[in-house]
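Lab notebook, design round three. We kept the backbone fixed and only want residue identities now. Task for the bench partner: fill in a sequence for the structure below.
Input structure tokens:
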């Protein structure tokens, strides 16, 4: 029996971007894929060559060329990429929970709790959490040595006010929410007993920011990990998973090929 021809998958990799989420997902899906790498310019913006792949010139971007066609499908936006790839290539995995309860197929309200969680967290990650973390990164830069020293006191004061009034309350609320969701998931992960694509998508923001959360506010005189022990145990758990470790090793190899000093 002839082996079914598989689509050609290519991940367009921009250094210091959120493409690691997609790389981890590809590893978990067990699909063959190709990498095309791009370096940032000296001002840290993406190169114009990425706009040849997608008009916005952002990363991650992935292309899928189905068998028998020459024109690839180009996907952008992390949440869309993760959902599309999981729905099409993850049917024999636990990366996407079963959608409908038995006998409720196609009916509104017939979805499983795990699938509803999965859908929600794909959108929560990109629509809510990452917005707060990106704002925190931008405001942090206003307090850094990147700002000329003679105006740094002013930009630092502005950034501190934004942290205190907007970023810290928002992030604190989100971490408390994730703590509560993990306590009711019925397992070690956001959607239950098994790792899903929603966990992979949310991993980048949580792992990247986990050591920085403490600097966002006073945390009631405690540490974020003391306030939200389930959440921080969950973050640690994600970092121990074989698929995550493989993705980290891949990133290291990519960075070294680009002449970039690798940092965890």
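Proposed sequence:
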């Amino acid at each position: 029996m002839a082996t079914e021809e598989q689509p050609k998958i290519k991940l367009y990799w921009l250094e210091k971007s959120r493409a690691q989420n997609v790389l981890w997902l590809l590893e978990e899906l067990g699909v063959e894929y190709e990498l095309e790498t791009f370096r940032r310019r000296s001002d840290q913006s993406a190169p114009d060559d990425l706009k040849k792949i997608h008009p916005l010139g952002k990363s991650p971007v992935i292309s899928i060329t189905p068998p028998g066609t020459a024109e690839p499908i180009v996907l952008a936006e992390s949440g869309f990429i993760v959902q599309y790839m999981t729905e099409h290539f993850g049917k024999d995995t636990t990366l996407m929970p079963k959608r409908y309860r038995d006998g409720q197929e196609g009916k509104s309200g017939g979805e499983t709790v795990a699938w509803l969680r999965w859908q929600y967290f794909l959108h929560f990650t990109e629509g809510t959490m990452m917005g707060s973390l990106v704002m925190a990164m931008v405001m942090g830069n206003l307090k850094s040595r990147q700002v000329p020293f003679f105006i740094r006191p002013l930009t630092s004061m502005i950034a501190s006010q934004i942290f205190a009034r907007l970023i810290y309350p928002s992030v604190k609320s989100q971490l408390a929410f994730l703590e509560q969701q993990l306590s009711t998931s019925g397992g070690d992960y956001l959607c239950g007993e098994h790792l899903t694509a929603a966990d992979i998508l949310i991993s980048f923001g949580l792992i990247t920011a986990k050591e920085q959360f403490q600097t966002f506010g006073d945390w009631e005189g405690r540490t974020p990990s003391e306030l939200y022990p389930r959440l921080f145990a969950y973050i640690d758990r994600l970092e121990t998973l074989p698929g995550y470790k493989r993705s980290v090793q891949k990133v290291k190899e990519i960075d070294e090929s680009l002449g970039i000093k690798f940092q965890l």
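Keep this in mind before ordering anything: The chain has a mean pLDDT of 91.
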